[in-house]
Structure formats: structure tokens, C-alpha cells
Amino acid sequence: MKPLILLRIAAISLLILSGCSHPSSSEQQQGTPLPEDKLSRFSLGDLSEFKPTDSNWQIAGDVFSLPEEVHSMEIEPGTGILVNKNDETHRKNIFTGFEHEDIEIEWEFMMPKGSNSGVYFQSRYEVQLFDSWKKVEVKHSDCGGIYERWDETRPEGEKGYEGKSPAVNAALAPGLWQRMRVIFRAPRFDEKGRKTENARFVEVIMNGITIHEDVEVTGPTRAAAFADERPAGPIMIQGDHGPVAFRNIRYRLFSRENLSMDKIQYRYFHGRWDVIPPFDSLEARAEGQTRFFDLDKIKTRENNYGIRFQGSLPIVKEGEYAFTIVSDDGSRLVIDGQMIADNDGLHGEEARTGKIFLSEGSHELTLDYFQATGGAFLQVFAEGPGIPYSPFHSPPSLLKQGVTRSVLPLSPRDEPELLRSFSMFGNEKRTHVMNVGNPEGMHYAYDLSQGTLLKVWRGAFLNVAPMWEGRGETQLSIPMGTAVEICGTPALIKMDNPTQAWPDTLPPQAGFYPRGYTLDNQGYPSFSYSAWETSVSDKIIPDTEKGTLKRTIVIEANVPLKTRWVLLARGEKIKALSPHTYNVGGKYYLHYQPSPDQAPVIRQSQGMEELIVPVLRKGRIETVSYELEW
Predict the structure, then answer these.
(1) Is the CB of residue 335 less than 8 Å from the CB of residue 397?
(2) Rounded (to 5) percent helix, strand, coil in the chain
(3) DSSP assigned state of 221
């Protein structure tokens, strides 16, 4: 093992061990919006959600595309998916039946190779959809870009202007389902119809990565349906540049009202506490007024202090309101004497959300906070009926999502970079994960305790700030590219009957024993373990020509074993696109060319589909090799 890798792993291991006795009490979402029930879902049983259009738009049950074939689109009958399959004759755009002002909307979309489309807010301001897979330098015309404006009267070479490129290329391979979430703030007009504020894309998140924040658009972008600007308009989806499909479209409309507080009083205290103290019985070192919950403008020391904020919260529309507090260390929110969110105690950045029904009128709000050692952090978000998710800790004139976390990047240089850490798989924290960053820009996370490939991603490697900032309690490393989860279950099991359920974790009788890893001459690791009376070597390396990760699993036993199986893939649906290529749940492609004794089986199990192969039927050594593309 290389000395540098050894030192880094040793340091991380010490940090992980030191953090294990004080785990984060909850891996709650940090500053996220309200649950899904707050969003209205498009009914895609037919086209009734949209204005009448041409026959290039239809409703389908499923769609597939061959990743290497330009504009390929295989459509299966059914409902739930909006499909545009245009040709030279039928290629009209489609408009929603409703008009919107401020809106939060999210959707999933699928585009075949070489395709092009766009979603126009108020039919005027476009978020571009494009096959931008693997592009290194992205422009406004790439997927997720805010498209440029256009003026024919400008000089040649300057007609297009003001486009905004996405911060990173978050696009997946063509033919896979991708996710987009947008918060849009409509332009503002006075009583005489004169524009007073430009439209803004407050936030655009693509495949889990924030690609835009607070982008102002001074007027309609190119190919808009209307050249003027108005307070409201329908959403338009472009239908004249190539096939595209949409599903799970959900949205909510906002009123023009914002939550704000009147007369926020604060009292500032010094002291050492493990929990929020009884501030009423303590003498304040300072007091005054503030417009927002802002630590930096109030505190006079880095550690061992507390603050009590108190003020009136005017409510103009009764209904259910949700409040989220994010803090390091403890915080607590009380409204009208009722505990709404209790985030007390010593901890790193953690979020707590509570809900309360508020009537019209003024309500009393108290927010307590204390800081012990390590990082100091306090954010407060609120939302209500028709009122967007907004911060109270900074000017809430614009919606602003999430916690602004620091970024401490880790990048491979001339050879692979290995880092042991905790890592999230779905909502589960995995504690024995090795992250492997490759100079080729294709990275993965491997669960050493199960012998399984957890997730893969492209682009930048890891943000390790949560492992080092403050007390580094979460011990989490965060992929800096679009992460695609592969499988959280063991790769190899003993299965006497092919209908037997695949276990989520290895049972004790598996005899699992990790044997570490070795590095080849280029620094790529091979992970080794023993289980089910076999020895296993598992190697995952990038293929730069194909743009894939190649996984090779070598299983060795003393005698031929007939009941050992390898899980290649698991997804909601596994579609064989060709004899050797599978679409796994619309999330990634798996390329597998088996030997004669490894005929793959697609089976239903526990509400999922699995692609499995038998091993060790004739010999004592078996190799299973396949490639992943995403």
C-alpha cells in the first residue's frame, strides 16, 4: 500500500473512531422543503392538463431508448408519461392549461441521444434540456442552462446574450431518467403595468446538484412563445427539436406574500452549557433589535455564548405553517408557548422541522440558541399556505433553499485516490465505505462490510467538509458529481432455490470476512473477502474509451459449488435493450456478455426486478465481468 494512502486512511480511521461514540442523533434532511403532499401532481392519464396541441404529444406507459442510437424512442402503451415523438410534420410545442406567477416545480425527463428540448416558464424563460452527456465545458445551450436572449438588431456575433451556463455538467447518459427542480420568481409590475423587477430563477437543481442560484433574466429568452412580459403565463414545453419524455411532474404556486417578523429583540449571554439554559434567570451581556436571526451581527465571541430572540409573527392567511431550524449547537423554537422544533444539545449542523396551525393575527415567537465549541451555525426557514419556503436568517425577498455548507474538495491527481468514510445510501448511513476517485473522472463508493458497489458518479470527486468541520460528527463524504445508486445488497450469496429472496445484508452463516485490498501498478484497488466457502476478488476500473466502469468479480472455491449466485443489478424494471445491454430502472446501463455457463436471469423479487447469474457450476474458479454506463 502506498505510504500517502496509508497515512490518509489512518487519519480518517482515527477520526471515524473518535466520532463513533458521539454519532449524529439524526441524519435529517438539512433545510429541505415540505413533504411531497404539498406539491400538486400532474394527472398524466391523458392530455387534459394541457391545451390542445399536435399529435407529436401523447401519453405512454413507458419509454426506452438505445443509448447509441440518435433520437431512438420505443414507446409502450399505458399512462403516466408525457411523450413528444416529433417528426418533420408534427412538432408543435405544448402549453399547460394553467398560468403561473411564482412557482416551484419538479419533473423527471428522458432524452435519447442527440435530442433537444426546453421548459419555458410563463412560456418566456427557458431552462434548456439537451443531450450534454460527458461534455467537459458546458454552455447556456447545454442541459440545465438558462438559455440566451436574442436580438436581431445587434451586430453579428452579439445577437445572442445573457445566457447562463449550468455550474457543472450534471447530465446523465441519453435514454436514462433525469430529475430537475426549479424555483422561479415571476417578474413584478406596478399598478400601471410597468415592470419593477425582472424574472429570476431562484434555484435550479439537476440530478441532486444545484446548477443555478439567483439568476436574473431581463426578458424572454430565445424561441419564447411571447415577446412581451406579464405577471403570469403558462408553462411551455418545446416540441420541435427532438424526442423527450416527462413523468412525475409536481408543482405548487405561490402567492406574493412573504412571512416576516416585527420587532425582533435579542438578548446575548455568556456561559458554558450542554443544553439551552434558562435564559430568563440569567443576566444578559448585551441586548438590542435585529431584522433577522443573524449570529454574526450579535455575537462577540466564538464559543460559550447563548442568544434569545423574541418577536411578533404577523399571519395574514390562516393555515398550517412549517418551521425548520438548523443549528450547531442547540436551538429551540416556541410559538405562542408551544414547542415547534426542539434541536437542543451538543451536536453539529442538524435540522428539526415542526408544524403548527396559525390563525390570522399576531403570534409570539421565541428562538433560543447556544454555542459551546466547534462551529457556530443557525438558520431558520418557514413556509405556509401559498407562501414559499423562505429564510428568516437573511433577507427573505427571494426563496433560498438549503443549508450553505462549506466545500472541502478531495480530488485524485495522477493516480486513484482512496478515502474511507461514512456514506449515505438512500436514507441509510453506511459506515464501512471506501470511496475510490479516479483521474479519469469516474468514481465509486464500495461497502467493505457487504462486498457491494454502492454508487457511481462522474466529474469532481468528494466534498469532505462534513468529516472535518467542527467536530466532524456526521463523518460523511459527499459525492460532488451526479451520484447514481447501484445496489446496497451483497453481490454474492448462496441460494438453493432461484426464487429465494436476496438478503439485504449477509447473514452470519455466510462466514463473511473482509481481507482488505491490494493496488495494481496503476493504483487501482482490488477488494478481497471470503464468504459462502469462497474467496472473492472484486476490481472496478474505468474504461476511458467506452466511458464505463468495468467490474470484474473472481470467485474461487476448493470444490465446484452449484448454489452460488451473483447479483448484477436490481431496479424497479430491468429492460433488455439488446442481448448484452440492460436498462436498469432507467438509472443506468449494464453491459454483460456472459460465458455459456452464466446465462443471466431476470426475476421478480420483493417488488423489484433482479438480474442474477449462477456461478461455480463446473469449475473451482469463476469470473463475472460487466460494465456500467450512466
Answers:
(1) no
(2) 5, 50, 45
(3) P
Query: 572 Cβ partners below 8 Å, 6+ apart?
Result: 585, 586, 608, 609
C-alpha closest to that of 112 among 69, 60, 75, 168: 69
Cell of 614: 449462477
Q: Long-range contacts: 138-142, Cβ < 8 Å, 24+?
A: 138/165, 138/166, 138/168, 138/169, 139/163, 139/165, 140/164, 140/165, 142/166, 142/169, 142/171
Residue 530 to residue 167: CA distance in whole angstroms: 43
CA–chain centroid gap for 502, Å, is: 27
Closest by CA position to 376, among listed 307, 270, 295, 310: 295
CA within 13 Å, CB half, 547: 14
Q: 603: exposed, middle or buried (C-beta count within 10 Å: 0-12, 13-18, 19+)?
A: middle
Residue 368 is inside which H or E element, if any?
Answer: strand 361-371
Q: What beta strand segments (E) does 65-197 contain?
A: 74-84, 94-100, 103-110, 116-121, 125-130, 149-150, 160-161, 177-185, 188-189, 195-197
Q: What pLDDT digit, counting tens, does each position of 21-79 carry?
A: 332 322 222 233 344 456 889 999 999 999 999 999 999 999 999 999 999 999 999 99
Mean pLDDT value across residues 538-557: 96
pTM: 0.81
* Those residues with Cβ within 8 angstroms of residue 130's Cβ, 6 or more apart along the chain or in another chain: 111, 115, 116, 117, 141, 142, 143, 145, 171
What angle is formed at CA 243 by the lines to CA 239 and CA 246, rounded to 5 degrees? 80
Contact 91, 97 (CB under 8 A): no
The answer, yes or no, to whether residue 17 has pLDDT greater than 80, is no
Amino acid at 303: N
Residues 6 or more apart from 137 whose CB is under 8 A from it? none
- pLDDT digits over 235-272, tens only? 999 999 999 999 999 998 887 767 778 779 999 999 99
Cβ contacts of 194 within 8 Å, gap of 6 or more = none
- Grid coordinates representing 392? 428568516
Determine how many CB atoms are found less than 10 A away from the CB of residue 306: 25
Cα separation, 332 vs 345, whole angstroms: 10
Do 452 and 487 meet the contact criterion of CB atoms below 8 Å apart? Answer: yes
d(C-alpha 354, C-alpha 322), whole Å = 6
Q: Which three cell numbers stand for residue 93?
A: 410545442
CA atoms of 144 and 205, how far apart (whole Å): 8
Question: What is the C-alpha to C-alpha distance for residues 386 and 472, in angstroms, rounded to an integer?
Answer: 37
Residues with Cβ within 8 Å of 507's Cβ and at least 6 positions away in sequence, in order, are: none
CA 429 to chain centre: 16
Grid cell locating 609: 426486478
Task: Give the count of alpha carbons within 13 A of 71, CB side only.
Answer: 10
- Whether the bond between 142 and the residue before it is cis, its omega within 30 degrees of 0, is no
Bridge-partner residues for 380, per DSSP? 325
Q: What does the block give as the cell for 416?
A: 486513484
Residue with cell 419509454: 63
What's the CA gap between 323 and 336, in Å, rounded? 14
C-alpha neighbours within 13 Å on the C-beta side of residue 376:
19
Q: Which residues contact 571 (CB under 8 A, 6 or more apart)?
A: 584, 585, 586, 587, 608, 609
C-alpha grid cell, residue 548: 464505463
pLDDT in tens, 167-224: 999 999 999 999 999 999 999 999 999 999 999 999 999 999 999 999 999 999 999 9
Q: Which amino acid appears at position 358 of this protein? A: L
